[in-house]
Design goal:
alpha/beta, rSAM, binds iron/sulfur cluster, S-adenosyl-L-methionine, seven-stranded parallel β-sheet, 11 strands, binds S-adenosylmethionine, about 325 residues, metal ion binding, iron-sulfur cluster binding, TIM Barrel, Fe-S oxidoreductase, 10 helices, single chain
Length: about 325
């Protein structure tokens, strides 16, 4: 038996964590108390790609990186103190800071998801929860977004990982696709292409930081059709596509907020820090700096918050 890639033995071993999560859930439901369930950390201020859709470059400033000791303080003082369950490592490109990745995995065994462009060889960590590999379409479209040669590098690294690390290695590979106006028609090809090398796939939609962003897929018949086709593919691949139908239905329209202000979006549920360990607002794609560019909540397509709205969490 497996639930979201976690076996029964593991679930039993993690019972203290579930106690905290369950207490938080009850406190929210009974008293409206809001305490973060998950964490996200931009562990690096560097990236080897410059993707056309990427929010991270929009607010990037030249700052120092944090040392390993400083990250340990953030882990203890923020993530552990608040008993977050799963931590997602992002950036920039987090695989370029293997020392910090190792530290997080040591501190949160089987509870770290590493989001990566996959262009660097994927290290085998026994205690990782899984790699999120970002795939933005079939080769031509992916490379249009991520740069020439990105797709073949990622493909090779995923193949090598799956082939060299035993029959269960594919379980560590989860695909994340951010759907936009360039790649929406490649969704079923992406599933066909990656299903044999990966455990799960999750979809989200491009979130703009400016009105008129041509990559954003407007609400309306075309977007609804893409979502309906994912919902019907879920019937064919129920264990592969992880988005709940409720979440996908939400993504057909505004579920998050008004203008750049989150309203229903449960921003409190994910404690997000930038590469200096500062808390980002309003959410994991925001920024700790006050004068930063802001994501447009009313056009948001982020998976990690909309899934919580689907489960009844609100801002
Ligand atoms: C910022 S990247 C950092 C991790 C790594 N460099 C990667 O590309 O996977 C994290 C994820 O955010 C997604 N992303 C970037 N810009 C986005 C946007 N404007 N809206 C929604 N998702 C976005 C990327 O496709 C990627 O899956
Ligand atoms: S690889 Fe990731 S962080 Fe780097 S530009 Fe692309 S989406 Fe952004
Ligand atoms: S995830 Fe961020 S951009 Fe989306 S609705 Fe929530 S606060 Fe706004």
């Amino acid at each position: 038996m497996e639930i979201m890639g976690r076996g029964l033995k593991q679930i039993l071993q993690e019972s203290p964590c579930y106690f905290h999560i369950f207490s938080k859930f009850l406190a929210y439901r009974l008293f409206g108390k809001k305490s973060p369930l998950y964490g996200s950390a931009d562990i690096i201020n560097v990236c080897n790609l410059h993707c056309t859709h990427c929010y991270w470059w929009l607010n990037r400033k030249e700052n120092e990186e944090m040392t390993l000791e400083e990250w340990k303080e953030v882990i203890d003082n923020k993530f552990k103190r608040q008993h977050v369950f799963i931590i997602t490592l992002v950036g920039g490109e987090p695989t370029l800071r293997p020392d910090v990745v190792e530290l997080f995995i040591k501190e949160f065994p089987k509870r770290v998801c590493l989001v990566t462009n996959g262009t660097k060889p994927l290290k085998k960590y026994n205690d990782i929860y899984f790699y999120w590999i970002s795939i933005d379409g079939t080769q031509e479209i992916h490379d249009k977004i991520r740069g020439h040669g990105a797709y073949s590098a990622t493909r090779k690294n995923v193949m090598d990982y799956v082939q060299k690390n035993g029959s269960k290695a594919y379980k560590d590979i989860w695909i994340t696709m951010t759907i936009n106006s360039l790649n929406y028609h490649t969704v079923s090809d992406v599933i066909k292409e990656w299903r044999q090398y990966s455990n799960k796939i999750g979809f989200q939609f491009h979130t703009p930081f400016a009105k008129g962003d041509p990559l954003w897929m407007p609400f309306g018949p075309e977007r609804t059709q893409v979502i309906d086709s994912i919902i019907s593919m879920k019937n064919k691949y129920p264990d592969y596509i992880i988005n709940p139908t409720k979440q996908l239905e939400l993504m057909k329209k505004n579920w998050g907020g008004h203008g750049t202000t989150p309203i229903d979006c449960p921003t409190w549920a994910i404690l997000s820090v930038d590469h200096m360990g500062r808390e980002k607002r309003p959410c994991c794609i925001g920024s700790a700096e006050k004068d930063s560019m802001k994501p447009i909540c009313e056009d948001c397509g982020l998976g990690c918050y909309s899934v919580l709205v689907g489960y009844g969490f609100r801002g």
